[in-house]
Amino acid sequence: MADPGPWVYAAAGVGTLAAAVLPRVLSRLPISMPMIFLGAGALVFWLVDGLPDPDPLAHSDITQHLTELCVIVSLMGAGLALDRPVGWRRWSTTWRLLGITMPLSMLAVGVLGWAALGLGAAAALLLAAVLAPTDPVLATEVQVGEPADDEEDDEDEARFALTSEAGLNDGLAFPFTYAAIAVSVVGVAPSGWLPHWLGVDVLWRLAVGMALGALVGWLLRKLVFAAPDEDFRLAKHAEGFVALAATFLAYGAAELANGYGFIAVFVCACTLRAGERSDGYHQVLHSYVEQAERMLTVLVVFLLGGAVVTGLFDGLRWVEVGFAAAVLLIIRPLAGVAGLAGGRTGPRERVVISFFGVRGVGSLFYITYALGHGEFADPQTLWRVVALVVVGSILLHGLTAAPVMYFLDRRRRRAAKVEHGDADEAANTAV
């Protein structure tokens, strides 16, 4: 057999170039870059013989670390993109999504997994935890753009809510994943796992993740913007890969201290963003990490497409298809509307936020991690169901994101124009 190396390099070049070009070409079309690469992965692995097996169960270590890297890089990008300072009122929509929508979604997914799929307690809890986080990786069409000088003017509520929610609930799903792992090992009886879970997996890990993320972000902020020696003031030199340094430092420090690295990375990004908000260096950092995220996303989604056509969906049942449809079309939208009722969002924004609960790479990481640390029956079924929801989300939300957000933006611009026109008219009348 000929050396496959040149083919791999050529394919990598084509994929990287496509990752640079496609987002601009597809910006107004009802199709997303993940959809393209999901289909490309499926087509290549279906047509070409002799390729490595992309089965995530057979290569769980590689799958875990690749998805882990993709998620932490995307979390840094999400945090750097947010212009709005953290606050109880400013982030009220986010707190509603995390405190109401996420628990309601988990409860519904867990009950449906038990009742419709016949899962046991541990597996149903795992499915609820794994499908809890929305995704900052595959949802670029409904996320905020690059950092801006203004704190709020450039962030509509829908994009801000979906970005900030995705940044935080990726980490908040971890305690429930640990709970599912514990139940799978020691049983349902709370005395065997609840005290350790509350004390360590909830309180300690969350506190450490937030504290170390804030500390790393604060130290880097001082170094980047306020170092006494200008040679160390990195904002002057526009070194974009500092974003990766922040990502790896925050994540590594939190994990070494037995905290949640996902939480640490997002908190670090928000802390770093809080310094010198009008400085253009934030755009440099965000642009660099966005490019790295895009390349990792291409690889993950391409391999997922390959896994789908090489056996990942073998044994798929109609009840599992119905379960995935219910998660995407019923559970998340209804839980979103319930969580946002009475909040600061308008009716259109509320529907958009509720609908675009994109599931993606975070879910792939959690299912891989849990199956490697717990004792779950029928891991093939669990992986199949999670992958089906992710693939369904890529297709459903990829088809609808661009036209829906275009419609929402047009309505918002029209309302702003009318309001501005009324103000001008009132001023002219007064004169």
Would you spell out the secondary-structure blueprint of this structure?
Elements: H1 5-25, H2 33-47, H3 60-81, H4 92-116, H5 121-130, H6 157-172, H7 174-186, H8 194-226, H9 242-256, H10 261-273, H11 281-312, H12 318-340, H13 347-355, H14 361-373, H15 379-430
Helix pairs in contact: 1-11, 2-11, 2-15, 3-6, 3-9, 3-10, 3-11, 3-14, 4-5, 4-6, 4-12, 5-7, 5-14, 6-10, 6-13, 7-8, 7-14, 8-9, 8-10, 9-10, 12-13, 12-15, 14-15
Quaternary class: single chain
Domain unit count: 1
- Judged by helices, strands and strand pairing, the structural class is mainly alpha
The CATH architecture category equals Up-down Bundle
In angstroms, what separates the terminal alpha carbons? 84 Å
> Taking Cα atoms only, what radius of gyration do you get, to the nearest Å?
22 Å
Count of DSSP strands: 0
Order of helices and strands: HHHHHHHHHHHHHHH
Mean pLDDT: 87
| Tally of contiguous helical segments | 15
Largest sheet: none
Strand content: under 5%
CATH topology-level name: Na+/H+ antiporter like fold
Low-pLDDT ranges: 425-431
Bin the helical content: over 70%
The dominant shape is globular
CATH top level is Mainly Alpha
What would a concise description of this structure say?
This protein is mainly alpha-helical and 431 residues long. It has helices spanning 5-25, 33-47, 60-81, 92-116, 121-130, 157-172, 174-186, 194-226, 242-256, 261-273, 281-312, 318-340, 347-355, 361-373, 379-430.
